[in-house]
Amino acid sequence: MALREHSADVAQDFADTDRASLLAALAGILPPAALLSAEEDLKPYECDGLSAYRQVPLAVALPETEAQVVAVIKACRAAGAPIVARGAGTGLSAGALPHPQGVVLSLAKLKKILRVDPVARVAVVQPGVRNLAISEAAAPLGLYYAPDPSSQIACSIGGNVAENSGGVHCLKYGLTLHNVLRVRAVLVSGDIVEFGNHALDAPGYDLLAVSIGSEGMLAVVTEVTVKLVPKPEQAQVIMASFDDVMKAGEAVAAVIAAGIIPAGLEMMDKPATAAVEPYVKAGYDLNAEAILLCESDGTAEEVAEEISRMKAVLETSGATDIRVSQSEPERLRFWAGRKAAFPAAGRISPDYYCMDGTIPRKRLGEMLTAIYAMEKKYRLRCINVFHAGDGNLHPLILYDANVAGELERTEAFGAEILKLSVDLGGTITGEHGVGYEKINSMCDQFGSEELRAFHAVKRAFDPEGLLNPEKGVPTLHRCAEFGRMHVHGGQVKFPELERL
Amino acid sequence: MIDEFRARILERKPLRLRGGGSKDFYGGPLAGDVLDTRSHAGIVSYEPTELVVTARCGTPLAELESALAARRQFLACEPPRFGNATVGGAVAAGLSGPRRAAVGSLRDYVLGVRIMDGEGRVLRFGGEVMKNVAGFDVSRLMTGSLGTLGLILDVSLKVLPLPAGDASLRFEMPQDKALEAMNRWAGQPLPLVASCWQDGVLSIRLSGAQAAVAAACKKLGGESLAAAAADEFWNGLREQGAAFFAGDAPLWRLSVPSVAPPLELPGEQLLEWGGAQRWLRGDGDAAQLREAAARAGGHATLFHGGDKTGGVFAPLQPALMEVHRRLKHSFDPYGVFNPGRMYSEF
User: I want to staple A91 with a disulfide (CB 3.0 to 4.6 A). Which of A48, A379, A414, A461 is the partner?
Assistant: First the structure.
């Protein structure tokens, strides 16, 4: 089937995909257990971690080898069918939402840890390997893989590469981007390529950086080399209470201003601590308007020095109470509350919607104040957990999908938070990706020229736009439609396009 | 200023983007008329508590770094100045200094860019925040692209606080033992930020909390270097002012896994980055050097001098070259920017 070249203006039309011949081709490539096409088998793949968006795909392919990945991609391309790569399906932006005419290409069966090298401090793994499994395999060697998204028990490294996942230790240890040396991937042409290598750089353009966070839109990952770092000898965390969210926000800036890069710097507001405390019994100060968790790690000497400096800064910044973890169990308990924020939201509300904007640190207090006003405006509750150290916000909007109108109000609430993130000098997504969920908000953050450039980058890798179409980067047509609702400062953002 | 740049670009004639000209020696043969970026200079914003600085392309790197130093911060990746490098040139070249293996490369610190593409359009990618996954990472695609994709106008960089403690140690040992030691130490929780082996001497730099540096010095032993001598030594590597880099013999840069065994090649070698960057002086055969680097799992670059007719950078596999060509064509459809500076194909 002939498809036109991928375009920035309008989405490709895949309506003519010949389902029967594509299924026959896939059946010739994959063993029966690795190809799903019956309605009841497809159902579990209809959504990822963001269940508000659902779509049953044409088929699900579960290749067991790289050669099968290549063959599946070639068959899909020959049939002109979209390919949506999927890891563990824990993503929070509907990035793995299937395409109705397309194939979900699950990498879940490629789950071998191929090599852990303690001397070179790298692990070579297949994309389906779970994030935490890497650290577990490296632990006996005194090493670990630093990025630790809260889904790390379940999420896969291929998905982490697709999203450029972060975690609570990014400020000091970086994102996926900073911890991956090499990605082996299959292009839509079927060519196997490597971005990066086991040295510290590669010739040519930095395609490794471009592929990380590309949301399955440029290539399909079949192998990843990650950096392993030495496990710190020791870690200690300070829990500081504040009677005012603005003061807590300022304390975050003050810690950085003092020349300290904490291993973790997290903030939770009062509704968030109230939600997790009955569930986890972390010992949080329930009277505080906000608490900060401030971690130091390193050698025993380093930690002692840094904890005392951080304590002094937090006291000067008006902390009403300060507690320092006195043992490893206590440190883990302080963190348990933060890490349980999402499930706690699920306990106190039938549904919740997690946002992911990032803003300059100094605007944290301002953002929280605005969110409190939005709660009244949309008549919905929101609990706030922030990766405060890097300005990454995770407001959790609580709603009930069974109450008419609540999902729509939730989406509008979320979009307003993202819009404000952009207006405050930040971004609509810090670590969860754009996926399908935030595709309209991309029109807030970027103008048509930047969006065209993104589409051109996509076209350079994927000329017909078969890989995860209609995700990540909106077409200009979509933005024009969306722009009818959002006019910026009286200016129409896509003047060259006809309004339909 | 920007309008003047645009007017030049819209002439659709090959341009050689140039800041301080400190890296004229680097990359493929120079072509096109010079577009001097130094008129677009100055720090746009610097907020120490946000750990971000934004500067225009023509800002001298030295000026940017003194502004950071005044607030006890720095560019941890230590891009070389080679005299009078500008911020735009540093990002376009994407080179990093002695701390690279420990703290990451310049691209790791690039948060956002504003560029002008081959059609004179001003585009903004990334931003001034630490975490940002909206859209493809074009800012980092620009880093190290040698100005072949667009004219970098402004750059936002992550900065870090200057570590309080700093010490340098020296050990006499042969290359294989030095490689073993560098890799072993890098796998331990030590504040090891830089290393160099040359001529039977391994030098390392420890940098971090004072207590941690003191503890590491005690643990590792070796001969301690006085602060001034240490600064001069590491600066000599960063700026290539050290004696090893003097003279006209071709300088090759072999980027290999840190664990690669000593490379038996004709010419003198100097190792950095825990063994991951190996400099070689000499008239070695290009094919032989590239082959040796590839066998070790890396690649070789003709960094300075020598015969550039065989290409400066290691050749790319055809599928990747095709992606490069398409990217180049998208950002620079008329082939205006630095033609041939990276590969003769574009």
Answer: A48
Q: B50: distance to nearest CA of chain A, Å?
A: 6
With a CB cutoff of 8 Å and minimum separation 6, the contacts of B324 are A204, A205, B316, B343, B345, B346
Tell me which of B72, B149, B190, B323 to substitute to probe the interface with A (most A C-beta atoms closer than 10 Å). Answer: B323
Segments forming the whole domain that contains residue B83 = 2-161+321-331
Residues B340, A167: Cα–Cα separation, whole Å: 41
Alpha helices, H only, A340-405: 341-348, 364-378
Q: Which amino acid is at B75?
A: L
Instruction: Name the closest residue on chain B to residue A256, using Cα atoms.
Output: B49
CATH of the domain at B293: 3.30.70
Closest residue, chain A, to B158 (C-alpha): A171
Task: Specify the DSSP element, H or E, that contains B10.
Answer: helix B2-10
- pLDDT tens figures, A239-290: 999 999 999 999 999 999 999 999 999 999 999 999 999 989 999 999 999 9
**Chain A contact for B7, CB < 8 A?**
no
pLDDT tens for each residue of A169-220: 998 999 999 999 999 999 999 999 999 999 999 999 999 999 999 999 999 9
Confirm whether B263 is domain-assigned. Answer: yes
Chain A environment of B72 (Cβ under 8 Å):
259
CA dist A396 and A385 (Å) reads: 8
Please report which confidence band the pLDDT of residue A484 belongs to, taking 50, 70 and 90 as the band edges: low
Kindly state whether residue B208 falls inside one of the protein's structural domains: yes
Shared domain for B223 and B292, answered yes or no, is no
Confidence check: pLDDT of A481 > 50: yes
Residue B291 included in any domain? yes
Q: Which of A387-391, B4-8, B171-175, B333-337 has the lowest mean pLDDT?
A: A387-391
B-chain residues near A171 (CB < 8 A): 130
Say how many CA atoms lie within 13 Å of B231 toward its Cβ.
3
End-to-end CA distance of chain A: 29
Burial bucket for residue B286 (CB in 10 Å: 0-12, 13-18, 19+): buried
Q: Which distant-in-sequence residues (6+ apart) come within 8 Å of A131 by Cβ?
A: A145, A147, A148, A149, A151, A152, A155, A156, A157, A160, A165
The two structure tokens encoding residue B231: 């600064």
**Residue A106 reports pLDDT greater than 90:** yes
pLDDT at A16: 86
Measured between CB atoms, which of A199, A260, A392 is closest to B131?
A: A392
Contact B331 A212 (CB under 8 A): no
**Which of A430, A433, A412, A409 has its CA nearest to residue A421?**
A430
Residue B344: CB atoms within 10 Å: 13
Give the model's confidence band at A3: pLDDT under 50 very low, under 70 low, under 90 confident, else very high. Answer: confident
B233 C-beta neighbours (distance < 10 Å), count? 19
Q: How many CB atoms lie within 10 A of CB A196?
A: 21
DSSP element (H, E) containing B178: helix B175-186
Residue B337 lies in a domain: no
- Domain spans in chain A, listed from the N-terminal domain onward: 19-106, 113-230, 234-342
Task: Count Cα atoms within 13 angstroms, Cβ side, for A165.
Answer: 24
Residues in A 2-61 with any Cβ partner in B closer than 8 A: none
A234-342: CATH architecture: 2-Layer Sandwich (3.30)
The CATH class, in words, for A113-230 is alpha beta
Using the predicted structure, report yes or no on whether residue B94 has a pLDDT greater than 80: yes
Q: Are residues B230 and B279 in the same domain?
A: no
Measured distance CA(A105)–CA(A35) in Å, rounded: 10
Please judge whether B187 and A118 are an interchain contact, meaning their C-beta atoms are less than 8 angstroms apart: yes
Q: What architecture is the A19-106 domain classified under in CATH?
A: 2-Layer Sandwich (3.30)
Distance from CA of B45 to the nearest CA of A (A): 13
